[in-house]
Specification:
Structural class: alpha/beta
Largest sheet: 6 strands, mixed
Helix content: 40-55%
Length: 671
């Protein structure tokens, strides 16, 4: 029996025993909770009139409920560890010592007793960096007490599944290439894999980065950007539990399917779920008082592909638009308000004083919130002179008088004034319930609203993750900077801009976020085979990317006279099931092509699903969707279907689609 197998038997035995103890403890706590409930209902009528006994009982019950939740959480973590307690080990001789200490590294920490020396160290623990950052030889790690130096005399890697050792070997390198290729060569899944067993040195540096407030990761397709960002969040949660909780983290995801695809990663790493949503959904929720509905980015992409977007769309997302709004707000101060004296119960605030307060004292308050600040001064005077506190009805009467001085408070109308001043076509004047905002106007209106009303921002969010950074406009980043004053991890790939031409947001992000920005490039791709990587490079013309030399099947390219013929070939070539792959995708350029393909496939193949803007789950089998909906996802087989070669978006369609494929890629052109 090898060292790994022997240690596995030892650790799993202790884990099993600890789980049995936890089961017993959970049962005891549950019985206590039930007894407390029973006692309360039998005795609550006789409890003291001041409620002290009732309060004590409630506090005791809350403590037991919390204890049960903590025990349940520990049980889930230990069950995950029982499946695979560790994946690596390091034999490390400290300077001045002769015998090595052996550190086993796993998904979480485990000791015989709370506070004891770990038998397995969490992959995020300081000592675990030895495994990721060093080969054999001199090494060091940063411990709470300072830098610990010494020598790595041996490193081992293990694969454990279902509590059984699949393999173990001594490794001279950090993560052996053969093992990495084996992991990457496995079939795709409907969920993003955690990468703790194969974290590379450059990835580990990003994950353990706690110094930079805003970290921008520019990574090639397949470089593991999203995985790195999620592992970084897990690391930060582990190291700053006092100030950072999962509820303080928000991920801005491209769509609901991507949210589902990544949702399990943090729980697998021992953390709670974090909040995820698209920025478009966030914008819609904040504009419900302006319009009944809003187009999203996917509507806009379809308009662009068909050449139907307005020639003003790009300007409305630019720094020029931001400057136009700032100039417009200066002029709006005079245009928006018609001052008049305000009198209540014999107390009067005359127009000259109103104007001084509005234009001077409260000049920093946003325009549509400024009159509230002036009103508070007036209310203070009334309450002081009358020696009484005004009730809510009285305050509402006063508020109405101050609000009537605004010519309008409707954001939609003020936005039209702005468009008129800029010489742009105005939006149709229709009732709010009939308004559907085109995408090109969603964020310009949101920014104008933000500047007119202000707001507290999202103070509960202490870390923001922005994925697919290349698809956000200058204006959207300005809005995010005003809404979130927290640390950020911003990631994406300029080569995967959905639009017809690549956008490098790194050129303007430092100007928005300031000098706190740290930029890191990841130029090694791990996803595709050598053959698929070569095709993607040919299509895009991108150079300077390093690829894993994982060999696979040649890319197949075929021309068809119709979509029906192409679908026949796809059905013939798809390999799913026990002897094949888990996932396949048919990716099209437009939504119309995707719907046509799906209608043909669903009649012939049982396990086929369609992803659109309303989808929220990633399924096994064949997935049919557009290339822009597939961003961030990966599939074993990819069939790239159709597309107009003359369209400016065609190159991006081909490149993004090709880089979704793990093992096999088919290009199906329809002539």
């Amino acid at each position: 029996m090898g060292r790994g197998a022997e240690y596995l038997t030892f650790v799993t035995g202790l884990l099993t025993r600890r789980l049995l103890e936890l089961e017993e403890k959970i049962g005891t706590v549950q019985k206590d909770i039930e007894d407390m409930h029973e006692y309360y209902w039998q005795n609550y009528t006789e409890m003291d009139q001041y409620g002290y006994e009732n309060f004590d009982n409630q506090q005791a019950l809350l403590a037991q409920v919390n204890a049960k939740e903590e025990n349940q959480k520990m049980k889930r973590r230990l069950k995950r560890m029982l499946d695979a307690p560790f994946f690596g080990s390091v034999d490390f001789v400290y300077d001045g010592e002769e015998e090595p200490e052996i550190f086993y590294i796993g998904i979480g920490s485990f000791a015989k007793r709370t506070g004891g020396t770990p038998l397995v160290y969490d992959w995020r623990a300081p000592v675990s960096s030895l495994f990721y950052d060093y080969d054999k030889g001199e090494a060091s790690y940063e411990a709470p007490g300072g830098t610990m130096e010494g020598e790595i005399v041996s490193k081992w890697q293990y694969k454990v599944r279902g509590g059984k050792l699949i393999y173990e070997f001594e490794s001279d390198t950090k993560i052996d290439d053969d093992i990495l290729k084996q992991e990457l060569g496995a079939n795709s899944d409907i969920q993003l894999k955690n990468i703790v067993r194969t974290i590379q040195k450059e990835q580990n540096a990003i994950i353990r980065n706690t110094k930079d407030r805003i970290l921008i990761i520019q990574g090639a397709a397949g470089s593991g950007k999203t995985s790195i960002a999620l592992h970084r969040i897990a690391y930060l949660l582990y190291h700053d539990r006092e100030h950072l909780k999962s509820s303080n983290v928000l991920v801005l995801s491209p769509n609901g399917v991507f949210s589902d695809y990544i949702s399990h990663v943090l729980p697998e790493l021992g953390e709670e779920h974090i909040q995820e949503m698209s920025f478009d959904l966030f914008a819609y929720r904040n504009l419900q008082d302006v319009a009944s509905d809003c187009e999203d980015r996917y509507h806009f992409i379809e308009h662009q592909i068909r050449g139907g977007s307005s020639r003003y769309a790009q300007w409305k997302q630019s720094s020029e638009y931001v400057r136009a709004v700032e100039g417009f707000l200066i002029e709006l101060e005079d245009r928006l308000v018609e001052f008049s004296d305000v009198e209540y119960r014999g107390v009067c605030m005359q127009t000259p004083r109103l104007m001084r307060l509005f234009y001077e004292k409260f000049s920093e308050v946003p325009l549509l919130s400024r009159m509230d600040a002036v009103m508070e001064c007036f209310v203070d005077e009334v309450e002081t002179l009358k020696n009484k506190t005004l009730c809510e009805d009285e305050l509402e009467q006063i508020r109405e008088r101050f609000q009537k001085m605004y010519v309008t408070r409707e954001i939609y109308q003020i936005y039209n004034w702005l468009l008129e001043d800029c010489g742009l076509p105005q939006l149709s004047y229709v009732p709010r319930e009939q308004r559907i905002l085109e995408y090109e106007d969603v964020y310009p209106i949101l920014y104008l609203k933000q500047r007119l009303l202000g707001g507290e921002g999202r103070r509960n969010i202490r870390h923001l993750v922005i994925d697919e950074m290349q698809d956000y406009s200058y204006l959207q980043y300005v809005i995010l900077e005003k809404m979130f004053s927290c640390n950020m991890t911003i990631l994406g790939d300029r080569a995967q801009t959905v639009d017809g031409s690549a956008q490098d947001v790194q050129t303007f992000l430092p100007g928005i976020f300031g000098r706190d920005v740290r930029r890191i490039e990841l130029n090694k791709s791990y996803r595709n085979t050598a053959q698929i990587s070569a095709y993607a490079a040919e299509v895009s013309g991108i150079t300077g990317i390093e690829y894993m030399n994982r060999q696979g099947k040649e890319v197949e390219r075929r021309d068809f006279s119709s979509v029906s013929d192409a679908v026949e070939e796809i059905l013939h070539s798809v390999r799913l099931g026990d002897d094949g792959f888990e996932t396949a995708a048919v990716l099209t350029m437009t939504e119309e092509e995707a719907k046509q393909c799906f209608s043909l496939l669903e009649k012939r193949f049982a396990q086929v699903s369609y992803i659109d803007r309303d989808s929220s789950a990633f399924c096994r089998g064949i997935t049919v969707t557009t290339y822009y909906q597939a961003k961030g996802l990966e599939f074993d087989q990819v069939f790239v279907l159709g597309g107009d070669r003359e369209n400016p978006f065609y190159k991006q369609f081909q490149y993004i689609s090709a880089t979704r494929a793990l093992h096999e890629l088919f290009i199906c052109s329809v002539l």
